[in-house]
Structure to design on (298 residues):
């Protein structure tokens, strides 16, 4: 199997892969409760494996996955209060939005400085962060030569679960469990699913997890790989038409971009809101209350 993982490639292999297809994939997620049946790294494991499959099929290089992502504050804390509950340890690898998105800027800087023609940034972690990722890339694209596209992995899953055309993503339910089962079968153990829900949260397990299928997970992966290949070609064609100048080259360039372009808009990001639509505040006695309110980073 052809190696596409940046960290596992030799310099001559990277140069050959770049010459053949100057596309880089970035994968994002975190360690987060995903039911008793899935390992906690599902989000990054899923996004990274899909990116690797796309690069093997269509060309490109896959950057090391980022296992630190947004959680514990704002609407994410409210969601965790309901879906995870009062657990002694959540095993989260969480950072606030301003840390995650600044890191993304540095990742894009690496792509631009190396001269990649296109970069596809895939998040396996849901909630509104993926819309913020798109907003971020729209803000910084005029300052970057590399053509950028960000998405949640389910955007590439166009036919949906079992061809229903509407299932999109879920959380540790039939879709995510099926995908992880197909990509990393050693990371799924269906025997750990409780016999019944019992009216209580089971470490953020999806209620329809019993419908998960490795076979359908494999079909969804194939659909996403096909979609990503088409998107990579679209971005490469856009680069060839415009031949933009690579300009995000130094750490100082990133800091200036962050302070002048991104930070003034950061308070508008959905991940920076205390509550999402139809949510109630986290109760004071909850383990999720301490980081719930988002500080003003404007």
């Amino acid at each position: 199997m052809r190696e596409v993982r940046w960290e596992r490639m030799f310099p001559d292999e990277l140069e050959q892969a770049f010459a053949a297809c100057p596309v880089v994939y970035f994968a994002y997620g975190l360690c987060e409760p995903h039911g008793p049946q899935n390992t906690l790294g599902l989000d990054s494991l899923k996004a990274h494996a899909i990116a690797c499959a796309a690069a093997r099929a269509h060309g490109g290089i896959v950057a090391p996955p980022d296992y630190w992502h947004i959680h514990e504050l704002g609407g994410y804390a409210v969601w965790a209060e309901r879906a995870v509950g009062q657990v002694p340890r959540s095993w989260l690898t969480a950072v606030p939005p301003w840390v995650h998105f600044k890191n993304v800027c540095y990742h894009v800087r690496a792509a631009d400085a190396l001269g990649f023609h296109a970069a596809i940034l895939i998040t396996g972690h849901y909630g509104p962060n993926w819309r913020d990722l798109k907003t971020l890339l729209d803000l910084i694209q005029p300052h970057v030569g590399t053509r950028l596209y960000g998405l949640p992995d389910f955007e590439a899953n166009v036919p949906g679960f079992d061809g229903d055309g509407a299932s999109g993503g879920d959380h540790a339910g039939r879709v995510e469990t099926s995908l992880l089962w197909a990509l990393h079968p050693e990371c799924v153990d269906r025997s750990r699913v409780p016999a019944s829900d019992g009216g209580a949260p089971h470490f953020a397990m999806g209620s329809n997890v019993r419908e998960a299928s490795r076979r359908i997970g494999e079909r969804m992966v194939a659909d996403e790989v096909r979609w990503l290949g088409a998107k990579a070609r679209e971005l490469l064609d856009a680069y060839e038409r415009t031949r933009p100048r690579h300009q995000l080259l130094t750490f100082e360039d990133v800091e200036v971009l962050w302070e002048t372009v991104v930070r003034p808009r950061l308070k508008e990001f959905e991940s920076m809101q205390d509550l999402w639509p139809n949510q109630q505040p986290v109760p004071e006695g909850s383990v999720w209350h301490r980081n719930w309110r988002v500080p003003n980073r404007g």
Summary: Strands lie at 23-28, 61-62, 69-70, 94-95, 118-123, 147-152.
